[in-house]
Give the backbone structure.
Amino acid sequence: MNAIEARGLCKRYGGTRAVDDLRFEVAQGEVFALLGVNGAGKSTAVRMLSGLTPPDAGDALLMGRSVARERAEVRRVVGLSPQESAVAPRLTTRENLELIAGLYGLPGSRAAEALEAFGLAEVAGRAAGKLSGGWQRRLSIAMALLPGPRVLFLDEPTLGLDVLARRALWDLIESLRGRVTVLLTTHYMEEAEALSDRVGILRAGRLTALGTAEELKARARAASFEDAFVALAATQEVE
Amino acid sequence: MRTLSLAKRGLLEMVRDPLTLIFGAGFPLALMLLLSAIQSRVPVPLFAPERLTPGILCFGQSFLALFAAQGLSRDRSSALMLRLLCSPMTARDCLLGWALPLLGLALAQGTLCLGCAFALGLDVNPRALAMLAAALPGAACQIALGLLCGSLLNDRQVGGICGALLTNLSAWLSGAWFDLSLMGGAVERIARMLPFANCVDAGRAALAGDWAGVAAPLLIASGWALALSAAAGMAFARKARAA
């Protein structure tokens, strides 16, 4: 069973097609990057795949559960770390993790375990809103992973972070490979190339390319992955 | 369990926000002391403790609507809401999680007001506790109204509508500061249909031991609380579906 199977997902906002006939599969344990310029439909796709937004047409299976018909079931197997750090700013790091444990009906000891597992112990007592961007993002990912999701969505996980914080998060994401299926969206080409097993490129809501970074470079006859992205993001259909 | 976890978060955020404590507890108490000071120099029957206390309670509760609306609209505009909606929490769990700490604040607010009223000369008797209980539907009304506004409005709109308009409306239309019959006509009729004046009337009747006089206004206030809660639930569920 694939972790993610998108089957012709469509979403319109007014007269705009945000996502149009999106089809792809992600294997269990794979790290998959969804790329595209601003407005390409990445965040809408993530919202539909994570069960937040119902598709207008089509469906997607998350660990075999339909986002169109079994949204509550889908929520039990997915975790989401949104573009902005999704933390309660007035709560401490520890309290944020305890909040998530409580929302999923898990024992409070899971919060203590997460503090250690994600290297957050040194900021456990600090208000989340006062943490640096890197710490907030790390906490946000820890909150998404605490309930033990089978599929994790990371929407622009390193946006706005300095290089050290970004590399620390790369290590964290790398450590998930094989254990948790990760779908990440990013604007950073080197991030997609370094982290992902395969890459999908969205343009105007449609998937225009799909493959490993090396395959996409070869297909675009480009020297760098960024050049390949520029070339492929301009094409119309997936090959 | 899920609801209590969210309620605990609301409680912690509330006690860590000095503005909540100032407006939720301090401001109604200060107003009560001020009006009692006026009453001691220029006796005004409306400002005697047995008439003033239910009015102050109703006025203080209008801040609950503001806090509920601000909390919910702030969460709605933040990425934390996506996390909540992505969790097994239902719309009902979420709304209860926001409402419970505010009900706690309402109880604390009522207890403080009552303590202050005792110090200002209100008779210490079981009827005072009955007044406190009669104030609960009013608190539920205000919290539900706040959650409704928080579900529909953004952060800035909430400040204007709940912060300025609602606190003034509930103050003027409650009959706390003047006798509604002085206005008469359509204004009085409208005020009698809304929950604010009924909450104050129920409290005053409870303090007077007029149990027959408690029932009708309490029923109206409870009806409003139920209707507003249902409206808030529908509005939030609709927004959540469109997230």
About this structure: Residues 211-241 of chain B form the longest helix (31 residues). DSSP finds eleven helices and no strands in chain B. Chain B touches chain A at residues 1-2, 4-6, 8-9, 12-13, 16-17, 78-80, 82-89, 241-243 (CB under 8 Å).
